[in-house]
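# step 3/5: fold
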Amino acid sequence: MADDPGQRRDGAAPRHAGGEGPRRPELAQFLRAMRARIGPREAGLPDVGRRRTPGLRRQEVAQLAAVSVDWYIRLEQGRVGVPGTAVLDAVAAALRLSPAERRHLYLVARGEAPPVAYTPAPVTASLRTLLDGMPVWPAYVVDFRTDVLARNAAAAALFGEDFGTGRAANASRLLFDPSSALRAAQLDWERIAREAVGNLRANHARHRDDPGMSALVAELRLLSPQFGIWWDDHTIGTRSHGTKRLRHPSAGELTVRYDVLATCDGSEQYLLALTPADPATERALRRLVTDRDERLGAPNVHAIGPRASGL
């Protein structure tokens, strides 16, 4: 066992000059409550003798987490510095914490949420229903690589029937490919493209070993010298909402607001929805959808190939 995870191999921050960190009563209460609800058998330990209080003993949690008993006691009393991520993960595993409980442990112990483990998943039926419930406003689902996983009929009416397939399968590629109609339609291209680079770099930091992400970055460097310049200046950003202008070949100039809604299940899927910023754009979007419906009679939601099933 490590003598003091507050100082040694687990990545914990050093103690404050006074010796012990500030007390954290909420951390202490949370750990005691989690320890009280799990018995030795559930934790894979022998259940020997009667216990005066329910749950695991402190020394048993320390044993399971591979930390010293003294350090765990001080952790549970809220008398350590900022615990390292490795030791918090060990304590979370020892106490059989759920993902939500592990997140709470990080928040009360470190003041920050833990990284969310990426879990590939199909676009859920409920998310597709949400897309289907927006027959007029363009909306689509992307993953952390900005691969388009699903889109509704309004998105096809605005961006074209091939949106989400073939060369149009990735939103970032469409934005930087000089031959892309979507790039040509962006009246605020520099602002939107720079924002996209910052968002993609933030995603790249969480998925450095993902071959698809590495291949995409390499491809975008070849497609666009400007992408390489912005990528190399390490601009970081996240996309949440904003306004942009588009020029559509038949509908003319459109001003839309965009909102990005993230799933919380570890799949890193994002729903992007476009809504009109003015009455003229609203009329134009409605007309585009009506014209497409009359022309094709196609279903509203379109799942994109095998990527929509998480493959």
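# step 4/5: annotate
The chain has two domains: 25-110, 125-309.
# step 5/5: archive (pending)
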